[in-house]
């Protein structure tokens, strides 16, 4: 929980309608320091509805920190982060509501081990969305169906494969009906044979026009599914563009070197 109370009158945003053509997320001049470590060094990024933005870059380049600044899991040290037109660093923003509008999925699933698959999904539906029990269960089951796991609803996460757990984590985020999904290397901890089933869920979501920011090492996925590829190095966006162009014709020596190491 954010530890912040929702201010009076703030209930409409971020659930209220917002123009389709306006960018969902706008980052301007975002810097992040951890003590003396300057991790984000002026990042500008806009994400529009329906875009699938893949972020690539070397380990330690600030990809996770950037993603965490988008939904305020980290507070930017300076710069602006807007979501649906509003500054999310405003202390009056209800962070639980904000995050329910941009689900995040991590490398290590982060499911609650003591809850069933179904309960993992209904928890926030009931407490953040305020759904009644029946409505929450119905919605959870339909999201589990979408990721092909309806028959696992009663199981505990420890009984599932890594790929199945990751699909539950995605279903949990989707159940909140987010405007955007953030994925941080969600296939990196999986055995190779389980990567495909998770990427397939992301492909399906992309086809249904879900807006996504996906930090990934899966270059094939980035090339085929992303509408835009963003290359980060040293806390800045070094290059961005159409994936095929960027991958076949990198403009900077840094991206050339990175691609020669990963592809
Ligand atoms: P990436 O996801 O691209 O690997 P990160 O955003 O995780 O990069 O990290 C960027 C840099 O910030 C790294 O040097 C990392 O050690 C450092 N870092 C990340 N999170 C923290 C933190 N909470 N406290 C201190 N340093 C951090
Ligand atoms: Mg990372």
Automatic annotation (TrEMBL):
Enzyme Commission code: 7.4.2.1
Q: Where do the ABC transporter domain residues begin and end?
A: 25-259
Q: Does the keyword Oxidoreductase apply?
A: no
Keyword set, alphabetical order: Amino-acid transport, ATP-binding, Cell membrane, Membrane, Nucleotide-binding, Transport
| Top EC class for this record | translocase
Family statement? Belongs to the ABC transporter superfamily.
Q: What is this protein called?
A: ABC-type polar-amino-acid transporter
Source species: Nocardioides agariphilus
């Amino acid at each position: 929980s954010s530890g912040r109370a929702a201010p009076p009158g703030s209930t409409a945003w971020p659930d209220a309608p917002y123009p389709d053509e306006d960018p969902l997320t706008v980052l301007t001049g975002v810097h992040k320091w951890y003590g003396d470590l300057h991790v984000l060094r002026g990042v500008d990024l806009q994400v529009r509805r329906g875009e699938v933005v893949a972020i690539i870059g070397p380990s330690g380049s600030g990809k996770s920190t950037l993603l965490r600044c988008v939904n305020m899991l980290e507070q930017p040290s300076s710069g602006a982060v807007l979501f649906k037109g509003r500054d999310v660093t405003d202390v009056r923003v209800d962070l639980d509501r904000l995050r329910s509008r941009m689900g995040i999925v991590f490398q290590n699933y982060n499911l609650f081990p003591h809850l069933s698959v179904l309960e993992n999904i209904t928890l926030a539906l009931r407490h953040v969305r305020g759904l009644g029990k029946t409505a929450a269960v119905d919605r959870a089951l339909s999201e589990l169906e979408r990721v092909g796991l309806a028959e696992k609803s009663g199981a505990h996460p420890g009984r599932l494969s890594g790929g199945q757990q990751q699909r539950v984590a995605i279903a949990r985020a989707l159940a909140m009906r987010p405007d955007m999904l953030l994925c941080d290397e969600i296939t990196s901890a999986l055995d190779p044979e389980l990567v495909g089933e998770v990427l397939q869920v992301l492909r399906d979501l992309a086809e249904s026009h879900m807006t996504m920011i996906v930090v990934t090492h899966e270059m094939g996925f980035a090339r085929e599914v992303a509408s835009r590829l963003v290359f980060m190095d040293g806390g800045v966006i070094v290059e961005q563009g159409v994936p095929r162009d960027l991958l076949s014709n990198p403009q900077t020596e840094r991206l050339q070197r990175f691609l020669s190491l990963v592809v």
